[in-house]
Amino acid sequence: EDDDDIPQLSSHTLAALQEFYLEQQQREGMKTSQEFNRYSIGSIEEDWQLSQFWYSNETASCLAKEAVVAAGEGGRIACVSAPSVYQKLKELDGKDFSVCILEYDRRFSVYGEEFIFYDYNQPLNLPENLLPHSFDIVIADPPYLSEECLQKTAETIKYLTKGKILLCTGAIMEEQAAKHLGVKMCKFIPKHLRNLANEFRCYVNYASGLD
Fold first, then answer.
1. Can you cite an annotated GO cellular component (predicted)?
2. How far is 118 from 80, CA to CA, in rounded Å?
3. CATH fold of 46-204
4. For the segment 21-73, what is each residue's pLDDT rounded down to a tens digit?
5. Which residues have a Cβ under 8 Å from the Cβ of 2 and sit 6 or more positions away?
6. Do the beta carbons of residue 106 and residue 47 sit within 8 Å?
C-alpha cells in the first residue's frame, strides 16, 4: 500500500519530542531512585496559577532553622502556605520538634497526616484536632499581596499560635502586617528560586535571629 498520505513529523519536531521523552524518563527515574528526596524544594513544581513561588534553598534553610530555635525543644511548628519551609524542616529530620503544613494545593497531601487542606477564604475552617493556640510558632506566606488575603490569613495565624509569628510577604505589606498581626520587618531578605517583581521581606513579633 502507498503510505505517502500518512503525515510525517519533521526531523526537528521528532528530535524535540525525543528530547522531551528523555527528560521525562530521567525525571521519573530520579523520583524512583534511592537518592531522590521527596522533601527537596522543587520535588513538587511551582504552580504560578496558584501564586506559588518557592524559596531558594538558602532562604528555606534560614527560615526553617529560625523556626526550630523559636519553637524550642519539643516545639510545634505550623507552616501556613509556606510549603518550601515545611520541606526544609522535614529535611532537617529533627526529633525535637513537630511540623504540619496548611496548604490549598492538594498535591502536598503526599506528606500524609501532616498535610491539612487550607483555604484562606475560610480562615477558621480547620480540623477539630487542630486546637487553638497549639503551635509554638506559625510561619505564614499569604499567596497574594492584598490586604484581604493578609487579613484572612492573620485570623488563621492568631488562632493557631501560642504567640510567635514569622510572616513572609511583600515589603509593600509592612503597614498592613503591623496592623493585623503586630509584626515588624526584619533585616533578613528572603530570596526565591525565581526573581519576583515585588520586594519580599520577613516580619516577626518576637526577638528573632533574622536581624
1. cytoplasm
2. 8
3. Rossmann fold (3.40.50)
4. 666 665 555 444 434 466 555 555 554 555 557 788 899 999 999 999 999 99
5. none
6. no
Cell 511540623, residue? 99
Measured CA to CA, the distance from residue 153 to residue 181 in angstroms comes to 10
Q: Rounded to the nearest 10 degrees, how much is the dihedral formed by the CA atoms of 201, 207, 99, 28?
A: 40
Given the C-alpha cell 484581604, which residue does it identify?
148
Reading the block at residue 190, the C-alpha cell is: 528572603
- Crossing angle for the helix pair 174-181 and 147-160, to the nearest 10 degrees: 30
Ranges of each domain in the chain? 8-39, 46-204
pLDDT tens digits, 86-140 = 999 998 877 889 999 999 988 888 889 999 999 999 999 999 999 999 999 999 9
Model confidence, pTM: 0.77
Please write the tens of the pLDDT for every residue from 168-190: 999 999 999 999 999 999 999 99
How does 47-79 read in b/e, with b if 16+ C-beta sit within 10 Å? eeeeebbbbebebbbbbbebbbebbeeebbbbb
- Residue 99 has which C-alpha cell? 511540623
R_g over Cα of the chain: 21
